Amino acid sequence: MQIFQYAEQCVDEAMKRKFTSFKNAHKSKAIIHTYLAWHKPEPGTSLAMAITAHTLEPNTPLAYQFTTWLRKLFETTYSG
Prior knowledge:
mainly alpha
């Protein structure tokens, strides 16, 4: 299982157990922040800071997983 799929699974489970209070429209944001909470430079880093700090390196297998996940997310969201 890829790490972004696991982050999504964790968010889905938290929603199912009613541990969350965010709107469903913000689910993708919850997933990326779940992922970022598990990585350096430190938990709670913003997406912009993660990119600046090279937590999300553009030419790595992890970045490929992230961009693949992001594309699938927006294809699903905006495909009509």
